[in-house]
Amino acid sequence: LYPVLFMDYLESWWPSLIPHAWRPIAVLTLSLALTWVNYRGLQIVSQASLVVCFLSLAPFMVMILLGAPQMEFGRLLVTKSMDTVDWPRFLNVMFWNLNYWDSVSTLSAEVEDPGKTLPSALGWAVLLVVLTYLLPLLVGIGTDPSIYTDHIEWHDGHFSEVARRIGGAGLASSVVLSSALSNLGLFEAEMSSDAYQLLGMAEDGMIPAIFARRSRHGTPTVGIGCSAVGVCLISVLSFGEIVEILNFLYAFAALFEFGSLIRLRIIHPDLPRPFKIPLGLIGLSLMIAPAVLMLLLVISLASWFTILSSGGVMLMGFQIPLLVRLCKEQDWCDFRQDFTCTGPSNRQDYASTAGGHQLNQQRTLSNRTTTVSYTHLTLPTKRIV
Question: pTM of whole model > 0.70?
Fold first, then answer.
């Protein structure tokens, strides 16, 4: 999705940049280049993400500073008939822009003191994400004279027109470029999350041990390769189709996560955790109830194409445990020890990837432990400009 969006943003501003026939090759080349960055290690990914974060947010900060004095606050009160809103598309795009907060769990074994670092980073990330969406939107509406007569002007890429009106062609070009760059940071973050999830599952004996192989940089080689193949395959779909499929699958995954959260509190209440939500079982259930309702709403909005394609993928996924069991019984693949949820004796020794296992010595490479902050991987946000 993100390499495709990167090319879309560039072509929206420079249509002749890449000939149409060369576009698939350009997307593939970009995907491979970004995959190589992930292969080199989380430290490089985090540092690159910080640079991309700054470059992505800087033009919008300039637009806010220049546009705030030009705002007409009455424009913020203009409403639109609810009947003209494409609710399925609106909710799907909004949901996609604000989800995947749980992805950091697959990287927690690579983070120093995750029990303290991750909650703090998540709190700051939520604040920054809200501000980076809300402030440019308020400035854009407040400086747009067409808001009284024509809402249709607000289409994909309209923020570049807002920037042009506020600060000229230079600021508009910067906004388009920053939006393109933000997709590179998002690609790196999502690939890291996917690859380390496979790594953790392999180290817990849930999938073949080949997925636990690390490169000389400490990165999960096979997991990164699988993620890259998936990116290339799904890039043939349109943006709307990809977003809807991702939301549909994510909604089911999140429901399973919430169910596991409640079940683990019941059957393993004393299990050591890097971080524990300071609520009892009833309070925890009430806290996740609004999120569960939102997830069910997203599922109900899916098209038949999404239901059939995603349903097929999920049915295949349900067969994987049976295939893994058969591979173990027939000794077709090598597996590491089976995971047992006993928990470590010392909370300080605890580190979690996909299954909550202890961090072994292989995770320290060349006497240097890889660390990364969640904010490095969360920002910039998925802004559709």
Answer: no
